[in-house]
């Protein structure tokens, strides 16, 4: 009987030990370099405080978030979103301008989409960091790593406290200030932190790509560089493009959301300002008070903020496209040399072929390209509809 029992227990010990071995292997594979931890720590810390973290970094290892963290985030957002709507409606006279309801609605939709994307792309978020780590092991950017980390801290705090400052000044002039609404605003700032996170990843990829281009240009023509080194250079270039493709997959929905948000909210802000001016013009004895001037000024700040968001996203994507073009031009330049070795020529041809065969530019859910033309198109469309609103209001 005891022999049978021992065999029965031993039957369950093997899978348990195997599980520990597999767990150790996965943990070792997902172990992060110290520099990579320092680069991503500011964003992970801030998003964790806002219950919107993209992954879990613990003991130098990165893993996807657990079910508990998603349930907790769901409960927090289930409280934050209704509270934000209730506080906004209770402190704002929506009957004066029905367009005012657009402001909290767009923000709540943005927060919900951010939460959904964090679940859908939980594996891709980890994959992006691991690909960047593979690039970091082979391409040396140690001279700029401290500068990158410092700017990561600066940008993440600027995104949060800049948003809070605009909120406090704006709503003090327009509505009654509410601490509960300010508390909710701290969680909504994760949308801006997500934007800054994406931009800083683009900056990091550009640093790697520029260093790769410098390495290609500095290769001696007559140097007997082996096939293995050329394969390593090609692998690094492919990893950079792979990281950008993962970034596109993670960011395209939020780019579309930010674009719609910028256009819709800016028109709503303009409509509110026009409505206030119409009321003042009808009541000629009513003076244009100091809070009214503040409201008009802060409305302009809000409009500029949302246009700046689109501009920043587009400009940094365009900079990455230019960096890819420079890498391709460097390969073409080296191939033009008659003394170019066979290994070099094979490397450069492969890089040029893969660059031209792949679609580098990011598209927002297949609707439009994210490049330097996008903010100009949005500004033109906004100006067009602004004239229409002014015509309906004063003609």
From TrEMBL:
Keyword Ion transport: no
Residue ranges crossing the lipid bilayer per the database entry: 67-89, 109-132, 144-171, 177-197, 366-394
UniProt keyword annotation of Membrane present: yes
Keywords from the named record: Membrane, Transmembrane, Transmembrane helix
Superkingdom classification of source: Eukaryota
Protein name as annotated: SFRICE041956.2
Gene this protein is translated from: SFRICE041956.2
